[in-house]
Write a structure and sequence with these properties.
Blueprint (H helix, E strand, L loop, with lengths): L1 H32 L3 H9 L4 E4 L5 E7 L5 E8 L4 E9 L2 E6 L2 E5 L15 E5 L4
Antiparallel strand pairs: 1-2, 2-3, 3-4, 5-6, 6-7
Amino acid sequence: MQRINLVLSTLALAAILFFSCGGSTLAKRSSIQQVTIEEIAKKELGNNPVIELNGTKTYALCLQRTKNSAMTNYILIKTSDRTITNRGQFRAGHAKWVSNNSVEILDWPGTIRVDQSAADFIKKIVLIEN
C-alpha cells in the first residue's frame, strides 16, 4: 500500500512539474508576441521614433533623426511577426510610403553635380509578402 502511495505521489508531482513548466513556456511565448512596434522602434532607433503604417497596416516605417546630424535612421517592421525586414539611413531627404508594398528613400548628398537630379538619389524598397 505504501508503495502504491509513493508511486501515485511521484506521478502527481511529475505531472505538476510538467504542466507548470509548459505553462511558463507559454507565458514567455505570449509576452514575446506582445512586444509592440513602438517598443521595437525605440530599442532600435531611440526615443520618440516616428512610426508610419502602410495602408494595409502590414508594415511599419519607423524613422529617427540622429542627434547633431542631418542623418535619419529607419527600419521597416513586418507587423504580423514584428520582424525587421529592412534598415538604413539617409541624409537630408525623406522616407515615405509610395504604395502598400513599397517605400521611397531619398538620400541627398552634400553636393549635387549639374548632370544629376533627385531621381539619381532615390532608392525604392519593395516589400514582398511570403
